[in-house]
């Protein structure tokens, strides 16, 4: 537990700020409890979605010098929390609402009602863009021919067997997008389709970036002890964080709630990374990652549905948390049944 002392401290502070924010907005205990709950779910979701991130970071950090390990675990976490979890969501609001960053920040802090109205008007584009990106992330995990650990056996084995069909994830997502597009009128349909295409292109560009980084592994290896490896890990962290940032909008459109929840989760990812490096072990729960990616797919469908019907945030949060919880429980059962500590998913 000593690895998570700072994460626990940030959790207490963050959840207290979340409850205070809810109280200021609603003026009721129920309002404070709602924001408290959303921040908690966002933190849990960020931890689960970033599980791979902790493993990749741990593997790379083992090869770095102690000095650059400390720099990544201090400066790197500041970049991760303030860059990807605060500035990036703000940029999403700026692009979606077509206002300046200063205006977006001022509105979020001083005029939440007007801010909410602007976000409501821009919600169709955010839902389509985020839903498409998340759907590609989720399906990409299951349409994998090299995936040999399956949680829901019949479904995941079938999807894995079709992984060799080129572009199958893109085809499935486009069919789903076209289906939801028909539910909108002409103007909304064009907006939904355009934003969905941008979400698809963004995912593909992130994949290309990952491929380029993989092909330049020699460069990273040559700078394992210095700035090169540090920057390498920061870019990878941004790639891993993107789905969590987008998915957060399915739970809340409040910039500060998103920042609090994802910031708490990022601190746990940092703590897990340190623990994995110092203990020399990797993931112990083989199905936890599966639950996280099922939660991603659920979030993507919710975001599509929210483009024309309101779905309470509490229901969305409970669905994702339940999937992650069940996958953790299944992992513990598997470990006990097989008499081992578990292995990575």
As an assembly, this protein is single chain
| Total of helices | 14
**Low-pLDDT regions:** 217-225
Largest sheet: none
Overall mean confidence score, pLDDT: 76
Which range best describes the helical content: under 10%, 10-25%, 25-40%, 40-55%, 55-70% or over 70%? over 70%
Radius of gyration: 20 Å
> Helix/strand-derived class?
mainly alpha
Return the domain count.
1
Structural notes for this entry:
This is DUF475 domain-containing protein. It comes from Primorskyibacter flagellatus. Pfam families: DUF475. By secondary structure, the protein is mostly helical. It has one domain (2-338). Helix content is 80%, strand content 0%. The protein is built from 14 helices and no strands. Helix 3 packs antiparallel against helix 11, helix 3 packs across helix 12 and helix 4 packs across helix 6 (112-142). The protein is globular and about 55 Å long.
């Amino acid at each position: 537990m000593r690895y998570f002392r700072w994460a626990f401290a940030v959790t207490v502070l963050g959840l207290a700020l979340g409850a205070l924010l809810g109280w200021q907005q609603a003026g009721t205990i129920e309002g404070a409890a709602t924001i408290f709950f959303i921040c908690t779910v966002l933190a849990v979701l960020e931890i689960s979605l970033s599980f791979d991130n902790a493993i990749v970071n741990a593997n790379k950090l083992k090869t770095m010098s102690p000095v650059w390990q400390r720099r990544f675990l201090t400066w790197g976490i500041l970049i991760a929390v303030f860059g990807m979890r605060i500035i990036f969501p703000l940029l999403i609001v700026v692009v979606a609402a077509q206002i300046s960053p200063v205006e977006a920040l001022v509105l979020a802090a001083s005029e939440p009602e007007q801010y909410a109205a602007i976000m409501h008007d821009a919600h169709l584009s955010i839902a389509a863009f985020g839903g498409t990106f998340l759907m590609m992330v989720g399906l990409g995990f299951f349409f994998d021919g090299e995936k040999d650990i399956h949680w829901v056996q019949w479904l995941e084995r079938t999807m894995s067997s079709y992984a060799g069909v080129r572009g199958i994830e893109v085809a499935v997502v486009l069919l789903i997008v076209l289906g939801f597009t028909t539910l909108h009128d002409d103007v909304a349909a064009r907006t939904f389709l355009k934003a969905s295409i941008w979400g698809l292109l963004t995912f593909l560009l992130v994949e290309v970036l990952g491929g380029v980084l993989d092909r330049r592994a020699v460069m990273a290896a040559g700078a394992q002890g210095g700035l090169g490896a540090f920057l390498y890990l920061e870019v990878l962290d941004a790639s891993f964080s993107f789905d969590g940032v987008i998915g957060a909008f399915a739970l809340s459109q409040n910039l500060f709630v998103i920042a609090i929840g994802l910031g708490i989760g990022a601190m746990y990812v940092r703590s897990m990374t340190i623990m994995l490096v110092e203990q020399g072990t990797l993931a112990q729960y083989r199905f936890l990652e599966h639950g996280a990616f099922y939660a991603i797919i659920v979030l993507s469908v919710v975001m599509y549905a929210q483009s024309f019907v309101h779905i309470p945030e509490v229901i969305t949060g409970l669905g994702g948390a339940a999937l992650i919880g069940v996958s953790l429980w299944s992992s513990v059962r598997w470990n006990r049944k097989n008499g081992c500590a578990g292995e990575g998913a």
